[in-house]
Write a structure and sequence with these properties.
Rossmann fold, Alpha-Beta Plaits, 7-stranded mixed β-sheet, 370 residues
Length: 370
């Protein structure tokens, strides 16, 4: 798991520009502007619903029969393009009234490590930017930039915040090509700590071979793997993140009791309180009791306990305490909660100073469902 000694507190970041889209204008289309509005709305719906199915959904076409109604402004873009800004709150209202899934602007940040084996011993990790190089380094810069652009294009289309590693001296002290290619978790997690990301996506690519690139996604205490080109991998990532974080408008709110233990200082209390107050999945947060080492909250969460666990799972500030089971005569049984009471869960605060890089990270392999 991403524990306190590995990474600082990671929290979702607000994605700007979700409702602004650049679309092409077809000079041969007599209704070019109206068609551009339709394409812009489709792209925005893909971002907001969290699924590519929105691009072909007849139901959404029925919900939005006149895309021009949702246009706030437009301006000319480069190469016969039109930059269209749509009315986000109005679109969300329409989706919610229909019970559709809505993914808000606060989204998990993912760091992307790409290890590329070009052949003949030419291996590298793709950095966030290319340093100044002489003419001999131009080809390396171009091919790295192309890979980043392929990844960033899908991330932008799906509304995903991503970051590439700086690959400065600090990174290179912690990780090398072999660590990434070989799937060594500890160096990877340690090197990712400074970026405060909620998840980690690792790509291993051999461009000059028929072998499909291999991808590993680390999130919470799970490790997913899949093959595919960079574009496919980014769509897979977007689908998985949306499944965890997007909320159906018809999901009922549930009142839960959440206890957080291990709070051993005023600083820890403030850190936990700030984090809980900023969680967008929580509609209401009330402190029911505060003791020297723990806080008990009453929380109202749209989507219930599963949504809360998914939200807490992308932060390394807390880890779940599995106290819902007990041993009875050698058998493991589930502890029943009193009838009529709110479900209760316990999480443990992870101190930042606790050393953990020498411990196994605790990830378990999961077959992806998407």
């Amino acid at each position: 798991m991403l524990t306190g000694g590995l990474m600082p507190v990671a929290s979702a970041v607000e994605v700007a520009g979700l409702y602004s889209v650049e679309v092409t204008l077809d000079p041969d289309d007599p209704n070019a502007q109206s068609s551009a509005y339709q394409r812009a709305l489709t792209e925005v719906l893909v971002r907001i619903t969290g699924t590519m199915a929105a691009a072909d959904a007849e139901e959404l076409a029925i919900l939005f029969p006149n895309p021009a109604v949702y246009v706030l402004q437009y301006r000319p873009g480069p190469d016969d393009a039109l930059v269209v800004t749509l009315d986000g709150p109005a679109i969300q209202r329409t989706l919610r009234q229909a019970g559709a899934t809505v993914w808000g602007t606060d989204r998990p940040l993912t760091i992307i490590w790409l290890a590329i084996d070009w052949g003949l011993g030419d291996r590298e990790i793709v950095p966030a930017g290319d340093p100044d190089r002489g003419a001999s380094g131009g080809r390396l810069i171009d091919r790295n930039q192309l890979l980043r652009e392929r990844v960033q294009e899908i991330a932008t289309r799906r509304g995903l915040p991503i970051v590439f590693p700086l690959l400065d001296a600090e990174d290179l002290r912690r990780i090398g090509f072999v660590d990434i290619w070989g799937g060594f978790d500890d160096p990877l997690l340690e090197a990712s700590a400074r970026y405060e990301a909620d998840s980690i996506l690792v790509g291993r690519i051999r461009p000059n071979e028929m072998q499909s690139p291999r991808w590993t996604w680390y999130v919470s205490e799970q490790r997913f793997g899949w093959p595919g080109e960079p574009e496919e991998a980014m769509h897979q990532l977007a689908d998985a993140l949306a499944a965890r974080n997007a909320i159906r408008s018809d999901e009922v709110s549930e009142v839960l009791e959440l206890t957080i233990t291990g709070i051993d200082s005023v600083g820890a209390y403030g850190r936990v309180q700030q984090y809980m107050s900023n969680l967008r999945v929580i509609d209401s947060l009330v402190i029911r009791s505060a003791q020297p080492d723990r806080i008990t909250y009453e929380v109202t969460v749209q989507g219930g306990a599963e949504r809360l666990h998914n939200a807490l799972g992308i932060s390394n500030l807390l880890e779940r305490v599995d106290d819902g089971y007990f041993i009875d005569g050698g058998a493991i049984r589930q502890r029943r909660q009193p009838m009529g009471s709110a479900q209760s869960f316990e999480y443990r605060y992870l101190r930042p100073e606790a050393p953990s890089v020498n411990r196994p990270p605790g990830y378990r392999d999961v077959n992806p469902e998407h």
